[in-house]
Design goal:
Structural class: alpha/beta
Number of helices: 11
CATH topology of the largest domain: TIM Barrel
Strand order of the largest sheet: 10-9-8-5-4-13-12-11
Number of strands: 22
Helix content: 25-40%
Distance between the termini: 38 Å
Largest sheet: 8 strands, parallel
Pfam families: Apiosidase
Protein name: Beta-glucosidase
Shape: globular
Organism: Clostridium beijerinckii (Clostridium MP)
Number of domains: 2
CATH superfamily of the largest domain: Glycosidases
CATH class of the largest domain: Alpha Beta
């Protein structure tokens, strides 16, 4: 097997000496909710679409949909509440989880495994709401050893935290201990933290322990600028490491806080490109409502948990949402044009921040994401450049009308119906 690595002062991943673009799908509830036949189908489709990483929660996802399967990582008491007894492990669960991971690896996927979702840790926003399954501090070492024995030879990314904030000192202590124990056992495997939506704060004690940054622009309709604002924040304020929007809005997810409305294909595509061109160029994660919780017809989804999302469609509908193909197309385009690291550039003269621009380190290629059609004014004379506009809906390509005058370039409006990517090459 070949490990994914991060070189010092690098914004990207490498595998076998070549650029590795982290294109993940979110399947938090895989180990508890998915049959092996469903898993095979899911992996095949996501492989076809170009994904190369699957994100999974090692323990039970607190807002997973109801399931008839009976796979839980720990013994529990209370048939409905599923309050875990942190003493021993259900060996069958971990054997099955490992088998599912091996199936994914055999199809070419990397694994990104969450160690401690925030509901298992004291004084997080989630454990304050539902604190019945907080893991005892003294159990962490035993749990980390079990994780290492089960998964580390498969060389996963370890996501130490899940959806967490860091308001409590004991919260930080839990994650520090988990990180240290795993680093001692698996020193060469990459670690990160999956932090709460719209948050850009990582405690000083943890910054140097992680190898790359995850942020999540999230599912709040009132913050449409979050994909690029958070990318800019991590790019500017923290030491140089790869940055990933690990949870943009999920396709067909209801707006958070029980607000009426859902995110659609355009919204998730917009979030991805805005993130990538604003500093988070190491990769991006897709999510479909109904997949992360693995929802099935007639089963309960708990809309009162977490941020109060509306019900999902069943997984066999959600897996066919078109936005997944758009994310695969991102990876295809970056490979096609030989693009690895992207450097954010602020040369757009239009009076909006929603048009995002980035260039390669050698400034040989420039990408501009335009969510809504307009003339684009750029504070550069793009003489001797090839300029093309790619329709991100139908994948058509046009050669635009361009005017270069007084030190500026104007790329005139295209005639596609939705968002586009402008590709500029010397």
């Amino acid at each position: 097997m070949s490990r994914i690595v991060v070189e010092k002062n690098s914004r990207i991943f490498k595998k076998d000496g070549k650029h590795f673009f982290y294109l993940a799908d979110t399947c938090w509830s895989a180990f508890t909710n998915i049959t092996l036949e469903e898993w095979e189908y899911y992996l095949n489709l996501r492989k076809y679409q170009g994904f190369n990483v699957i994100q999974i929660n090692i323990l039970s996802q607190w807002d997973a949909s109801e399931t008839d399967l009976n796979f839980y990582p720990l013994p529990y008491k209370g048939e409905k509440s599923k309050v875990f007894e942190f003493r021993e492990f259900n060996e069958e669960y971990f054997e099955r989880a490992r088998h599912m991971c091996k199936m994914a690896k055999e199809k070419g996927f990397e694994l990104a495994l969450v160690v401690l979702w925030c509901n298992y840790v004291p004084n997080t926003w989630a454990s304050k709401m539902f604190g019945s399954n907080i893991m005892p501090y003294d159990f962490i070492e035993k749990y980390i050893k079990k994780i290492h024995e089960t998964f580390s030879d498969l060389e996963p990314f370890y996501i130490i935290s899940g959806d967490t904030d860091f308001d409590g000192e004991d919260t930080k202590e839990y994650y520090l201990k988990a990180s240290k124990e795993l680093r001692n056992l698996a020193p060469n495997l990459l670690q990160t933290l999956h932090i709460k939506g719209r948050l850009d704060i990582i405690p000083d004690e943890l910054i140097d322990r992680i190898d790359f940054y995850f942020y999540q622009s999230g599912h709040n309709a009132g913050n449409p600028a979050m994909p690029y604002l958070l990318a800019e924040s991590f790019y500017k304020k923290y030491p140089i490491k790869p940055i990933i929007n690990s949870e943009p809005c999920y396709e067909q997810m209801g707006y958070s806080r029980k607000m009426y409305g859902r995110f659609y294909q355009f919204d998730v595509r917009r979030a991805a490109w805005m993130s990538l061109l604003s500093g988070a160029c190491a990769g991006v994660t897709y999510g479909a409502h109904g997949i992360y919780s693995w929802h099935k017809i007639g089963k309960v989804f708990a809309p009162g948990l977490g941020e109060g999302f509306d019900r999902p469609n069943p997984w066999n509908d959600a897996i066919k949402y078109p936005g997944a193909w758009d994310y695969g197309y991102i990876r295809y385009l970056l490979d096609l044009y030989g693009i690895d690291e992207l450097v954010p550039v602020n040369k757009i003269k239009n009076p909006t921040n929603d048009i995002r621009m980035a260039c390669t380190k050698d400034e040989d290629k420039i990408l501009i994401y335009v969510p809504i059609n307009t003339n684009i004014k750029i504070d550069i004379e793009l003489i001797h450049y090839d300029i093309k506009i790619i329709d991100l809906v139908n994948k058509n390509v046009c050669i635009p009308n361009v005017e270069i005058k007084n030190g500026e370039t104007t790329i005139y409006m295209h005639n596609f119906e939705q968002d586009v990517l402008i590709v500029i090459r010397k």
